[in-house]
Amino acid sequence: MKPPSPSRLLRQAVALVIWTSLALIAVHYNTIIHPFILADNRHYTFYVFKILRHYPALKYLAAPLYIICAWLVIHTLGTLTDDRTPSPPPKESSVHAINSQTNFPASDKGSLAWISPLGCRVSFAIVWLAATTLSLVSAPLVEPRYCILPWLFWRLHVPSVQTSESDGGSPTDGQNDAAKRITGKDWFWRVICREDVRLWVETVWFAAINLMTGYMFLYRGFEWANEPGKMQRFMW
User: Fold this and answer.
1) Where are the domains of the chain?
2) Which of 55, 61, 95, 197 is the most buried (most CB within 10 A)?
3) DSSP 3-state assignment of 109?
4) pLDDT tens for residues 142-179?
């Protein structure tokens, strides 16, 4: 893949500056700290906004990060993961050839041969952005649970990773001579990565968050001065 041209880099830099400026304006005029957030120190958002009240400049430093994350979210929806120009779906003969090499069942040859679908439609991205904006911006409270449904719809529309034709076969397959030369360790990682390695990373990431949350809830309890003897626990 060729490196981006200087003119493209310049356009991207100008776009980043413009969007970051708009983000700074939005942060300045729309950072609302609801009284309920500062009324309960059992919630994680209480400590986030407590830090922002002591160090107001931090909210502005996060603006470029917002824009970069937003770009990555939209870019992931609209492009193939291998950054190659998509070709038309293979013909029946090539589909059969791919499935014979990868040992896919015949019933799956139509669905599994074209593994990397195109990105989602622009209409979906517009509707998804509008619905997410209406549900999050209009909520005066900041709650991570508000982001669950938008994230699920986004994740379901992320294109899958394209697998190579040599993936999926076992090291002892007679149909693929190259697979016979693969060591057990290499074959194991090919099988793992064939299922889209991002899913494994996300699973580990979410498991770590849940373990941390469970630990804080079970073992980091505290008492309020006005309610002695009653254990308070951290929660979302």
Assistant:
1) 198-236
2) 95
3) helix
4) 888 899 999 999 998 888 765 444 444 444 444 444 44
